[in-house]
């Protein structure tokens, strides 16, 4: 590149940066830098443009180089500014010792310098540590007030808004919610109005979402999320870098759009995994919550594990997963230790764990622990007052009341929780409160009204894809006698069966067999769920799943055999499974199925060989496929009057 072309490219990058055209700015500044090393100010521009594009591995390099240039030139304030930015970015990378080193370097550089914006940003760095790491909320408030005072003296709009916002967050943490959120809202209005620079605007928006999330004020968070999205569109930004995407996805998840939330978080974690590890950890946790709710326990555990590896406590999600596995004692220990690790001053952090502790304690019949957790949650809800916190407190109180047989109190608390969850547009939590209400109504003798509530809850769970909750609600309805005695359905039934399980148990031993069976069950359940099916029964060494269409059932069957074959190839062993598939009418009794179609599917499975998928030819045809002529044959099935044509389904 000639000198003239390099100069023109550099100017193009600067112009694009001023327009907030981040991609164009990044590409031009990068190309100019490749031709001749950039000056420090342009290196800062390159780093910021890379940040907006999620090229987070290039941000540190640009700011380190800028620091070196400023330091060599004796520009201590500018060097301190880049040192502070490096401290923040490296802290997100969880390189805490290096981040602390850059922070100390910034302190040294600014020690004898006249007051400047850099002093305000240094105060903010200490604020973040006091608020988020040490949970010293009084110290955090002092630092926020110092930041704001510096901003007033030097006339920095960005720093003024950030200091105001920080003060609001500290006040919220101290329980002064109305005063604190008023300041948070005021600072965020400045961001919405375009009064701040892009980075300060992003920081305010993200921290507003953090404040709303800490407070469980999801209604307010939703409003600001929409405002932030409009700002992104005006700035030609597809969205904030992944750290803010995670927070937006949490709101989307709460509102029941789980596939959308999952897509958003997957994108965020792909952006964040190489760099912003603390936010990547939160993304993995959110994925674990979604997978847990749809019944994919294996994937949920994997995501919670990844969150834990990145220093995000995987509670309460992992504890509730253990409860779903029937390990209530293990779950109780996990949640107890997680709460013991949090100081009593961190009431909002503890409030996120307490509903889970109540649920686990009641499952164990531990009313004392449930009572203490319910009382603490009610106290925090009274202080902070957000609808979601009050709804959680009412749900906990109602659950405890049902367990103690105080059905009148439980009805009141459950109805209150339903109304509050409706206010914040949280359909899953609202449906769970309806199940609680149904249990309380049943206990009080009102079986008809209980049935209505269970029907409403089941409909919501099914719409969301919360299959375990839907199955539980149907089971409760059947147990109460409030569900229809029988319901004719048109479904595709799939049976699976482990071949040769008895000699296998003898060969590997009971403990190894139990571990293998847990892996098998979790794997098959995950694949069934991924294909919109529902596991409705465990049949010894296999399962019965139902699907709304033959093509989904056959796709799931192929998926099961392929995963088992891959595991066998990669790990040396996996159980041999045979699968039978048949589309037919059946009769549903709550969560159970009967009828000739179900019997036919079971008989077809019994005819299959290990590693084979055998289906009725009518099912293959209904799925839009052609039956394999080499394996097609007519068979007589016990209990079925007419012969049936079956065919092997190719999956390799």
Average pLDDT, to the nearest integer?
Answer: 88
DSSP helical segment count: 31
Low-confidence segments: none
Helix content: over 70%
Gap between N and C termini, in Å?
Answer: 53 Å
**Name of the CATH architecture of the largest domain:** 2-Layer Sandwich
Counting DSSP E segments of at least 2 residues, the number of strands comes to: 8
Strand coverage percent: 5-15%
* Major sheet description: 8 strands, mixed
Index terms:
alpha+beta; Serine Threonine Protein Phosphatase 5, Tetratricopeptide repeat; eight-stranded mixed β-sheet; single chain; 5 domains; 71% helix; 652 residues
Task: Walk me through the structure.
α6 (96-110) packs antiparallel against α7. The chain has five domains: 1-107, Tetratricopeptide repeat domain (Serine Threonine Protein Phosphatase 5, Tetratricopeptide repeat); 115-232, Serine Threonine Protein Phosphatase 5, Tetratricopeptide repeat, CATH 1.25.40.10; 241-314, Tetratricopeptide repeat domain (Serine Threonine Protein Phosphatase 5, Tetratricopeptide repeat, Alpha Horseshoe); 321-480, Serine Threonine Protein Phosphatase 5, Tetratricopeptide repeat; 487-648, 2-Layer Sandwich (Alpha-Beta Plaits), CATH 3.30.70.1230. The model has no long low-confidence stretch (mean pLDDT 88). The chain has 652 residues and is of the alpha+beta class. 71% of the residues lie in helices and 8% in strands. The chain is globular and about 95 Å long. It has 31 helices and eight strands.
């Amino acid at each position: 590149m000639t000198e003239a072309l390099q100069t023109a490219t550099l100017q193009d990058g600067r112009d694009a940066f001023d327009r907030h055209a981040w991609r164009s700015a990044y590409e031009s500044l990068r190309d100019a830098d490749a031709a001749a090393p950039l000056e420090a100010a342009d290196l800062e521009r390159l780093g910021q443009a890379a940040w907006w594009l999620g090229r987070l591995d290039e941000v540190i390099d640009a700011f380190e180089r800028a620091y070196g240039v400023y330091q060599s030139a004796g520009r201590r304030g500018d060097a301190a500014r880049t040192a502070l930015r490096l401290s923040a970015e490296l802290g997100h990378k969880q390189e805490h010792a290096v981040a602390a080193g850059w922070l100390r370097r910034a302190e040294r550089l600014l020690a004898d310098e006249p007051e400047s914006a850099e002093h305000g940003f240094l105060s903010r760095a200490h604020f973040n540590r006091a608020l988020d790491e040490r949970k010293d909320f009084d110290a955090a408030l002092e630092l926020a007030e110092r930041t704001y005072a510096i901003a007033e003296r030097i006339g920095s709009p960005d720093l003024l808004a950030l200091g105001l916002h920080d003060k609001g967050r500290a006040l919220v943490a101290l329980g002064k919610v109305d005063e604190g959120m008023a300041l948070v809202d005021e600072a965020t209005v400045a961001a919405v109005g375009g009064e701040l620079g892009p980075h300060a605007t992003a920081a305010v928006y993200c921290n507003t979402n953090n404040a709303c999330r800490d407070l469980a004020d999801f209604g307010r968070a939703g409003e600001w999320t929409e405002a932030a999205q409009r700002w992104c569109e005006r700035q030609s930004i597809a969205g904030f870098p992944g750290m803010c995407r995670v927070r937006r996805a949490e709101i989307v998840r709460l509102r029941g759009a789980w596939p959308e939330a999952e897509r958003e978080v997957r994108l965020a974690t792909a952006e964040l995994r190489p760099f912003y590890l603390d936010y990547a950890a939160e993304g993995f946790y959110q994925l674990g919550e979604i997978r847990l709710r749809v019944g994919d326990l294996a994937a949920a555990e994997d995501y919670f594990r990844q969150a834990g590896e990145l220093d995000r406590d995987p509670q309460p999600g992992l504890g509730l997963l253990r409860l779903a596995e029937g390990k209530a004692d293990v779950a109780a220990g996990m949640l107890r230790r997680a709460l013991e690790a949090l100081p009593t001053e961190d009431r909002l952090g503890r409030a996120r764990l307490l509903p889970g502790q109540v649920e686990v304690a009641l499952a164990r019949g531990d009313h004392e622990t449930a009572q203490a957790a319910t009382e603490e949650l009610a106290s925090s809800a009274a202080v902070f007052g957000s609808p979601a916190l009050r709804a959680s407190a009412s749900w906990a109180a109602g659950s405890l009341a049902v367990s103690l047989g105080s059905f009148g109190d439980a009805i009141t608390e459950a109805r209150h929780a339903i109304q509050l969850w409706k206010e914040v547009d949280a359909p899953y939590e609202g449906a769970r409160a309806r199940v609680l209400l149904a249990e309380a109504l049943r206990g009080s003798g009102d079986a008809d009204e209980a049935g209505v509530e269970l029907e409403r809850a089941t409909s919501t769970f099914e719409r969301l894809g919360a299959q375990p909750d839907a199955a539980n609600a149907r089971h409760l309805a059947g147990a109460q006698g409030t569900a229809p005695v029988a319901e004719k359905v048109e479904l595709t039934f799939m049976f699976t069966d482990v071949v040769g399980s008895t000699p296998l148990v003898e060969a590997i031993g009971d403990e190894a067999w139990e571990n293998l069976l847990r892996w098998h069950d979790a794997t098959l359940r995950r694949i069934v769920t991924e294909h919109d099916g529902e596991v409705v029964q465990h049949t010894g060494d296999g399962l019965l799943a139902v699907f709304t269409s033959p093509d989904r059932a056959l796709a799931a069957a192929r998926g099961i055999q392929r995963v088992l074959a891959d595991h066998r190839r990669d790990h040396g062993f996996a159980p041999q499974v045979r699968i039978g598939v048949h589309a037919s009418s059946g009769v549903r009794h709550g969560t159970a199925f009967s009828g000739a179609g179900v019997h036919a599917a079971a008989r077809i499975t019994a005819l299959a060989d290990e590693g084979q998928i055998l289906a009725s030819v009518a099912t293959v045809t209904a799925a839009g496929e052609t039956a394999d002529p080499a394996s097609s044959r007519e068979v007589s099935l016990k209990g079925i009057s007419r012969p049936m044509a079956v065919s092997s389904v190719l999956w390799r």
